[in-house]
């Protein structure tokens, strides 16, 4: 019976359920049994607990759980469980279960009817014990059939719904996990094509459970790709029906009697145990026919008869004699005496005789003994046959002899004594790849083969190793001419060349034939060609390099092939071997959205400054930059700002702009068009057409300007959480169509007439604003200015006025009244997926400083009227940039307030710019700038001693040495990733490492 339950669990696991399916089947059977007991009592069927206990395991084993498992298999293998219909809707779970019942319901009812019919034969047999058992079993089967059609079908309906929910969750998870996180940017060999349907690697526990318990869901068609036939007949059902019939036949013919009342009570009495005293009969009987008792009874009867005749009464009297059973007294000694070996053996043999006398066990032992003898004989014959075959094979294989390990080792040592040393064959030339930095100036190193090698002691010969070396030599032999004739033979060969050397390349005609006349679509035909053959087709103009993704249908392979094409067509031919990473990237988010002709991606170091408190909330400041000291300098500014309570920001304007250029036949018509646009009627018509293109596009205002016959119209609109260039361009086209109906003679010269103005420094952006206009303010205590920034409030205010205001005005700057706002803004742009080209207008900033609180503290403001950012679209679709936005809490569109995420990102950028401005101006005022850059911002390139280090212009920044604490106290310290050099002494302040001034 326990094996039946284990088999039920394994079968449920094979159907894809570890727990709930088997639990539902077991619950259905248990409920049917509980309903059976009161029904039997109502039908006056006697229930003997002992007989019922012995019979239930037999009923469970013979009937089993195949019928509910068969129904579950049909339901879970139904094609409409996970696959939607043609109209996209899923079939209701109830209809799926009803269709499964239509397929196998009649077969299940037939099996129940046959089993109940066989049990009814046992009911009518009249054999004691068997009749009651068959009656109970027939009622139980009927109730089980009822439960399958009611309770169990409801369980299957719930399981279908749960399986659909799991599939939807798995699909959502697979969409969110887009970029492979394991691995660096090192490209693999191009000959190894990425497999589209690579199997997911299993863990050790999963492989072990699959080997021991079987593969989960192995009986479902979608797991193995083969259609299951759940309605097919299973021969096990007929075998179990035959077992039930045999069981009834043996009982009726009285071959076995385990279910009769006498046998069950007798076995119970025989095997009952009482503490130290043998069990006595419960109701001892007295034999009144024994000579002793019969003579006494006869004398009593004669005496009674004589007494009646002598009595004077005529009334008849009756003599009643009660014969009491004999009482046996057994004296148990106080000390238990030790039994002899003979007594122990006698007790064992008595127990064994009683055990073997059981009608079921005796026959079972005989059957097991026969099976054991048969299996032993079969195994002995197999061993004998295997030994003979092995001996014959040994004779055929040139007479292999076996010796002991010690003798073989001694003999090998003796054979090695004359030749103690063996010379190793010359190894193949190892090619050293050229570093990308030195590829253009330094020739690649050449490794020469040594002419003579010292004798080296070699271990005993290994035949397997020799065979492997011979195979390697045979593979390398035909490749030598090709390698020596190739232009890059002095370096490591390309993956394509390795692939073509291993596999014979097809000719150009054969490749063209496969490409043009092979299986369709073209991607299937190209999958028959290796990468080198695809390169050959592209070099001969059969495949356009820009269309490789569309033709190949494999994004990673398209990048590999294009990389080889561009490398071989270039002058240096180094791209194919370069360190530009290519693998472990989700190109599906790039193609058609971010870049074309992709050959890889460029990693940029990503640092974190801060945290910085912005409007009462702490934010880390992500910065993607290759400029040293920039992140550290910004972190120092964040610390100073946090000490004064953080930064307060105000959003003054939010509108993206687009300014088309429109030509008119005359200035009169141009002036009329301008007046119409600025009128209430014209503005209403244009606004309606403009806002009809998107629910996020909300027109704010229209500004017009004329230059001769050309009219420039500057549309300003809110764009939600998107940066909005595409949205406003589409809306502007719709508004111009409406204008065309009023002025059909107008000609739209360009959708963008540089009146926007986009990606160019312009005074209109500085004055009117574009994107998000942010004003930020902070108060820095005077003691923080002295202790952290190492300067004074007066010095900062004076330097800011002379440098950022007067100096920029002398240079005729437009919006450049700052120290280095573009530095911080561009680093955040790169980290968050913004358009780097828009840093031109977004970096327009005015930094103001003035003393406050009686000249003790510093009041600092930053005004940035055109920060053009978004959290939807563009580079924000890339997974790394999305992760940075998610860290800031501004990923994607805001669920309730469109535009709030993009506005919050603009506030963070303006606050970070303030931190960078404060730190740099303080470094200039304190004289730390040159010393910090000399210590930490010089490129350390491995060059020759006489070669000067590579230098490039750098934006000034302040040195912030290393600290071991990370964000533990924003009022005392921040993360500072730099490490001071040996020549730069430092002192440790409270929670913050600051530089010591070397000049006195």
TrEMBL record:
<keyword id="KW-0560">Oxidoreductase</keyword>
<keyword id="KW-0521">NADP</keyword>
<dbReference type="GO" id="GO:0008299">
    <property type="term" value="P:isoprenoid biosynthetic process"/>
</dbReference>
<keyword id="KW-0472">Membrane</keyword>
<feature type="region of interest" description="Disordered">
    <location>
        <begin position="173"/>
        <end position="204"/>
    </location>
</feature>
<feature type="transmembrane region" description="Helical">
    <location>
        <begin position="241"/>
        <end position="261"/>
    </location>
</feature>
<feature type="domain" description="SSD">
    <location>
        <begin position="1"/>
        <end position="158"/>
    </location>
</feature>
<keyword id="KW-1133">Transmembrane helix</keyword>
<feature type="compositionally biased region" description="Polar residues">
    <location>
        <begin position="173"/>
        <end position="184"/>
    </location>
</feature>
<dbReference type="InterPro" id="IPR023076">
    <property type="entry name" value="HMG_CoA_Rdtase_CS"/>
</dbReference>
<feature type="transmembrane region" description="Helical">
    <location>
        <begin position="136"/>
        <end position="160"/>
    </location>
</feature>
<keyword id="KW-0812">Transmembrane</keyword>
<dbReference type="InterPro" id="IPR053958">
    <property type="entry name" value="HMGCR/SNAP/NPC1-like_SSD"/>
</dbReference>
<dbReference type="GO" id="GO:0015936">
    <property type="term" value="P:coenzyme A metabolic process"/>
</dbReference>
<dbReference type="GO" id="GO:0006696">
    <property type="term" value="P:ergosterol biosynthetic process"/>
</dbReference>
<dbReference type="InterPro" id="IPR004554">
    <property type="entry name" value="HMG_CoA_Rdtase_eu_arc"/>
</dbReference>
<feature type="region of interest" description="Disordered">
    <location>
        <begin position="981"/>
        <end position="1000"/>
    </location>
</feature>
<comment type="similarity">
    <text>Belongs to the HMG-CoA reductase family.</text>
</comment>
<dbReference type="InterPro" id="IPR023074">
    <property type="entry name" value="HMG_CoA_Rdtase_cat_sf"/>
</dbReference>
<dbReference type="GO" id="GO:0005778">
    <property type="term" value="C:peroxisomal membrane"/>
</dbReference>
<dbReference type="InterPro" id="IPR002202">
    <property type="entry name" value="HMG_CoA_Rdtase"/>
</dbReference>
<dbReference type="InterPro" id="IPR023282">
    <property type="entry name" value="HMG_CoA_Rdtase_N"/>
</dbReference>
<feature type="region of interest" description="Disordered">
    <location>
        <begin position="477"/>
        <end position="500"/>
    </location>
</feature>
<keyword id="KW-0256">Endoplasmic reticulum</keyword>
<protein>
    <recommendedName>
        <fullName>3-hydroxy-3-methylglutaryl coenzyme A reductase</fullName>
        <ecNumber>1.1.1.34</ecNumber>
    </recommendedName>
</protein>
<comment type="pathway">
    <text>Metabolic intermediate biosynthesis; (R)-mevalonate biosynthesis; (R)-mevalonate from acetyl-CoA: step 3/3.</text>
</comment>
<dbReference type="InterPro" id="IPR009023">
    <property type="entry name" value="HMG_CoA_Rdtase_NAD(P)-bd_sf"/>
</dbReference>
<dbReference type="InterPro" id="IPR009029">
    <property type="entry name" value="HMG_CoA_Rdtase_sub-bd_dom_sf"/>
</dbReference>
<dbReference type="GO" id="GO:0005789">
    <property type="term" value="C:endoplasmic reticulum membrane"/>
</dbReference>
<dbReference type="Pfam" id="PF12349">
    <property type="entry name" value="Sterol-sensing"/>
</dbReference>
<dbReference type="Pfam" id="PF00368">
    <property type="entry name" value="HMG-CoA_red"/>
</dbReference>
<dbReference type="InterPro" id="IPR000731">
    <property type="entry name" value="SSD"/>
</dbReference>
<dbReference type="GO" id="GO:0004420">
    <property type="term" value="F:hydroxymethylglutaryl-CoA reductase (NADPH) activity"/>
</dbReference>
């Amino acid at each position: 019976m326990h094996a039946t339950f284990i088999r039920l669990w394994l079968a449920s696991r094979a159907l894809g359920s570890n727990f709930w399916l088997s639990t539902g089947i077991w619950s259905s059977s248990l409920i049917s049994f509980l309903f059976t007991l009161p029904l039997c009592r109502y039908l006056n069927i006697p229930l003997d607990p002992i007989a019922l206990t012995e019979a239930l395991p037999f009923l469970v084993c013979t009937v089993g759980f195949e019928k509910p498992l068969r129904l579950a298999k049909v339901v879970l293998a139904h094609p409409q469980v996970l696959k939607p219909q043609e109209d996209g809707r899923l079939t209701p779970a109830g209809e799926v279960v009803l269709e499964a019942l239509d397929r196998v319901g009649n077969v299940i009812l037939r099996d129940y009817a046959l089993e109940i019919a066989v049990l009814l034969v046992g009911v009518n047999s009249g054999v004691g014990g068997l009749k009651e058992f068959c009656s109970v079993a027939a009622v139980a089967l009927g109730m089980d059939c009822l439960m399958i059609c009611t309770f169990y079908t409801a369980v299957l309906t719930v399981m279908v719904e749960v399986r659909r929910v799991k599939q939807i969750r798995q699909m959502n998870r697979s969409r969110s996990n887009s970029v492979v996180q394991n691995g660096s940017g090192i490209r693999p060999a191009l000959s190894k094509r990425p497999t589209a349907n690579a199997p997911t690697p299993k863990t050790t526990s999963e492989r072990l459970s699959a080997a021991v318990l079987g593969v989960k869901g192995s009986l479902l068609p979608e797991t193995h790709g083969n259609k299951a036939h759940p309605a097919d007949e299973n021969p096990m059902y007929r075998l179990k029906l035959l077992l039930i019939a045999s069981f009834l036949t043996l009982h009726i013919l009285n071959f076995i009697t385990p279910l009769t009342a006498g046998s069950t009570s007798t076995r119970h009495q025989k095997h009952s145990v009482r503490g130290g005293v043998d069990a006595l009969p419960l109701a001892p009987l007295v034999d009144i026919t024994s000579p002793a008792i019969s003579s006494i009874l006869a004398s009593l009867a004669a005496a009674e008869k004589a007494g009646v005749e002598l009595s004077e009464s005529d009334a008849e009297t009756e003599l009643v004699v009660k014969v009491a059973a004999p009482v046996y007294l057994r004296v148990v000694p106080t000390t238990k005496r030790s039994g002899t070996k003979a007594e122990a053996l006698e007790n064992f043999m008595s127990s064994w005789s009683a055990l073997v006398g059981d009608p079921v066990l005796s026959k079972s032992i005989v059957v097991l003994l026969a099976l054991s003898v048969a299996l032993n004989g079969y195994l002995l014959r197999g061993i004998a046959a295997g030994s003979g075959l092995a001996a014959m094979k040994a004779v055929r294989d040139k007479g292999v002899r076996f010796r002991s390990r010690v003798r073989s080792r001694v003999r090998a040592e003796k054979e090695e004594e004359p030749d103690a040393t063996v010379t190793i064959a010359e190894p193949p030339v190892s090619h050293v790849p050229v570093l990308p930095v030195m590829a253009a100036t330094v020739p690649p190193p050449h490794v020469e083969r040594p002419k003579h090698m010292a004798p080296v002691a070699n271990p005993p010969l290994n035949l397997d190793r020799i065979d492997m070396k011979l195979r390697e030599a045979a593979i390398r032999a035909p490749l030598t001419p090709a390698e020596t004739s190739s232009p890059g033979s002095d370096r490591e060969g390309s993956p394509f060349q390795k692939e073509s050397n291993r596999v014979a390349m097809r000719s150009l005609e054969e490749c063209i034939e496969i490409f043009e006349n092979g299986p369709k679509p073209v991607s299937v035909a190209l999958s028959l060609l290796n990468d080198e053959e695809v390169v050959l087709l592209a070099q001969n103009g059969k495949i356009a390099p820009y269309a490789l993704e569309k033709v190949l249908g494999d994004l990673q392979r398209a990048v590999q092939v294009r990389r080889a094409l561009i490398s071989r067509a270039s002058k240096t031919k180094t791209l194919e071997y370069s360190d530009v990473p290519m693998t472990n990237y989700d190109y599906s988010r790039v193609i058609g959205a971010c870049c074309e002709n992709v050959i890889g991606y460029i990693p940029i170091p990503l640092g974190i400054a801060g945290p910085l408190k912005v409007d009462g909330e702490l934010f880390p400041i992500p910065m993607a930059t290759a400029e040293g000291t920039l992140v550290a300098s910004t972190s120092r500014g964040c610390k100073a700002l946090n000490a004064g309570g953080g930064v307060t920001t105000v959003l003054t304007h939010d509108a993206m702009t687009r300014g088309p250029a429109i030509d008119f036949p005359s200035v009169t018509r141009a002036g009329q068009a301008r007046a119409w646009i600025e009128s209430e009627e014209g503005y209403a018509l244009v606004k309606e057409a403009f806002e009809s293109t998107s629910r996020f596009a909300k027109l704010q205002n229209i500004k017009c300007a004329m230059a001769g016959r050309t009219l420039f119209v500057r549309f300003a609109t809110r764009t939600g959480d998107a940066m909005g260039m595409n949205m406003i361009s589409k809306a502007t086209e719709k508004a111009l169509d409406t204008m065309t109906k009023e002025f059909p003679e107008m000609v739209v010269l360009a959708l963008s007439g540089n009146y926007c103005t986009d990606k160019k420094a312009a005074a209109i952006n500085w004055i009117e604003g574009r994107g998000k206009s942010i004003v930020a303010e902070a108060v820095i205590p005077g003691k923080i200015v002295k202790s952290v920034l190492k300067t004074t409030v007066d010095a900062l205010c004076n330097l800011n006025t002379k440098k950022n205001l007067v100096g920029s005005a002398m240079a005729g700057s437009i919006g450049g009244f700052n120290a280095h706002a573009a530095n911080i803004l561009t680093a955040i742009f790169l980290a968050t997926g913004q358009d780097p080209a828009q840093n031109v207008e977004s970096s327009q900033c005015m930094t103001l400083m003035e003393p406050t609180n009686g000249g003790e503290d510093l009041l600092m403001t930053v005004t940035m009227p055109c920060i053009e950012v978004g959290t939807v679209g563009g580079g924000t679709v890339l997974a790394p940039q999305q992760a940075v936005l998610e860290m800031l809490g501004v990923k994607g569109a805001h669920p309730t307030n469109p535009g709030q995420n993009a506005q919050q990102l603009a506030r963070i950028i303006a606050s970070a710019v303030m931190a960078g401005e404060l730190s740099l101006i303080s470094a200039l005022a304190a004289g730390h700038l040159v010393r910090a850059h000399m210590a930490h911002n010089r490129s350390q390139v491995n060059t020759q001693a006489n070669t000067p280090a590579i230098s490039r212009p750098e934006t000034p920044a302040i040195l912030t040495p290393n600290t071991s604490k990370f964000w533990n106290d924003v009022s005392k310290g921040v993360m500072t990733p730099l490490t001071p050099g040996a020549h730069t002494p430092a002192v440790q302040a409270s929670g913050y490492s600051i530089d010591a001034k070397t000049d006195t």
